[in-house]
Design brief:
It contains 1 helix and 22 strands. The chain has about 270 residues and is mainly beta.
């Protein structure tokens, strides 16, 4: 199965700019509520409307350079005295979300030994290396999966589903993850960039059912690293709150009702 990259990055219905949600060109005929952040700028910082928890050595926009990836991305790396894990989460308008679908480009900085990286949803509590909510991750066992409440750099909390044998899994190229949390249904797909065909090739899929976190919470990007100078890159994050999650959006102080349509994962 292939997903064209141009289609993945597409036009945003609502683009995140300077921490404010503003209307842009519609993705399809029905209005779709979309949080989009490409993490291309500002260099050496993180965008407005985003907050870092646990200051790792580097949590800022840096040059990426992996095959299939944009020029820049959010780089989260553990330093000699840095925390073993870190989270950068969206803290702007409409940040509390329950039912979401989305996608992100991600890749590992250096060896992935004793490391993981991925997307955190329905998060309300961050304490030390523990983050409650659901975690869609890749990790050093050449696997990707879904867990509940990751608590260290190597222990992903309670693992709900994991694929240990995705084909073409490589830390030397960009990967794309699509994720979905709708009610108790959790699912994810992982893609690898095919530089020859210039396509995203699906290399695995996981799904699980869990009712532990049914309420709203934050969406963020998490990295856990057992080694110094190790971490991950992220770019082109798209998060779509589904109708059961958001019906009212506050934009520049005004309440705007939008009809929303669920996004289908490719």
């Amino acid at each position: 199965m292939q997903a064209n990259r141009a289609g993945f990055r597409g036009m945003a219905a609502i683009a995140l700019s300077a921490g404010v949600l503003s209307f842009g060109a519609a993705r399809d005929a029905a209005a779709t509520l979309l949080i989009e952040q490409d993490f291309q700028s500002p260099v050496d910082s993180i965008p407005d409307g985003w907050t870092a928890f646990n200051e790792m050595a580097t949590q800022s926009i840096k040059s990426w350079g992996y095959a299939g990836a944009p020029a820049n991305g959010l780089k989260m790396v553990r330093g000699a005295a840095g925390s073993q894990s870190g989270v950068v989460y969206y803290s702007g308008a409409g940040a509390t979300l329950t039912n979401v679908t989305g996608s992100v480009l991600l890749g590992v900085s250096g060896s992935i030994s004793s490391s993981s990286a991925g997307v955190l949803v329905r998060n309300t509590t961050l304490s030390g290396n523990t983050a409650n909510g659901y975690y869609f991750f890749i990790r050093d066992t050449n696997s990707f999966g879904i867990s509940r409440s990751p608590d260290t750099h190597t222990t992903e909390g309670t693992v709900l589903a994991e694929d240990f044998t995705p084909s073409n899994f490589s830390i030397t190229t960009a990967m794309k993850m699509e994720f979905s949390a709708i009610g108790s249904a959790l699912s994810a797909k992982l893609y690898a960039w095919d530089s020859v065909g210039s396509n995203w090739d699906e290399i695995g899929a996981v799904s699980a059912t869990d009712t532990t976190f049914a309420g709203g919470g934050r969406v963020g990007l998490r990295v856990g690293s057992g080694n110094t100078n190790r971490g991950a890159y992220f770019s082109d994050l798209e998060v779509i709150p589904e109708p059961a999650s958001v019906g009212l959006l506050i934009v520049a102080g005004a309440a705007v009702w939008r009809r929303m349509r669920p996004r289908r994962m490719k």
